[in-house]
Amino acid sequence: MNKTIALIPGDGIGPEIVEQAVKVLNAIAKKFSHTFTYETVDMGGIAIDKWGEPLPKAMLEKCLASDSVLLGAVGGPQWDSMPGHLRPEKGLLALRSAMGLYCNLRPATLWPQLAAASPLKDISQGIDFVVVRELIGGIYFGSHTTELVEGQPVATDIMRYSESEIRRIGKIAFETARKRRKKVTSVDKANVLDTSRLWRKIMHELAQEYPDVEYSDMLVDNAAMQLVKAPHQFDVLVTENMFGDILSDEASMLTGSIGMIPSSSMGEGTRGLFEPIHGSAPDIAGKDLANPVGTILSAAMMLRYSFGMEQEATTIEQAVSTVLDKNFRTSDTMAEGCTQVSCSQMGDAIASACC
Ligand code: IPM
Ligand code: MG
Fold first, then answer.
1. Tell me: the pLDDT tens digits for 305-355?
2. Which of 147, 156, 220, 280 has most Cβ atoms within 10 angstroms of its Cβ?
3. pTM above 0.90, yes or no
4. Residue 240 Cβ contacting ligand 1 at under 6 Å
5. Is the shortest distance between the CB of 245 and ligand 1 below 6 Å?
6. Does 113 fall in a domain?
């Protein structure tokens, strides 16, 4: 197959981790006789510096013209004091929205080889669940204002959800559960928020349509506790945008390192955005220290979900497992008896294990 992939290296460690994913994609292309053509897209801080805005129109168009998009990370302290519309993250949010990517899947799977790396190892053995996060609604996309009221600044962020926005993500959660252990936990704050009460009502309606799927609601504060108390109870955890952002970071620590977790963001079509869930880690940027596995596994998700290349995706996942079996670790997952490797060595090792 011929596929065009838009690559967004972004900021911080973004370029170095995306470079490793490209090595792996090239190894796959060679092995399975595909042609992957790459288009590099500036987004985030680098685009602000070069073009004066986080997602220039021409860059968005490159993404929309591609078959799928692979992203490293955006953001960094040098852009922290920029006004809201000129923040690197704004580019990412605009891209998710423009591509209609309402469904964000963030798997929390424990690699047995990394069991010892999790600070929560005593409770996290064998966990396997996925966070289904609504990605283009809620407080992220309501209006954000700061105004002077009686002489002092007052800031407002609006959280808004429509019934159809809730229903479409809910359906994905139930469908996902059907292919797994058939259990959905919907996380909300229905004891306080109207958006959550609507969320819960729609989820209950959907639960009737999926009688084969076990359904429960959970308040978000309790969910935060249950994730570190009894994470095995989760199979599919579905939640709104901001709760999903927070809970997926929490869930990642059950797996040992946030550096290992990929994500897929998709909408109605097959074009998606695939990115690790971690940030741009400016403190280690350019030092060849980052863990590229989250990005490499995101590339695997892209092959599976955007291109329908199941065997190719599995090849990458098995290559990661092989390299972990060889006890190669980047610094974030380093443990006794293992060999510490750099970001590029990890990329090389996984690429050659694909062949
Ligand atoms: C994530 C990130 C983003 C988010 C930021 C960079 C805007 O934290 O993908 O989880 O909050 O969605
Ligand atoms: Mg986040």
1. 999 999 999 999 999 999 999 999 999 999 899 999 999 999 999 999 999
2. 280
3. yes
4. no
5. yes
6. no
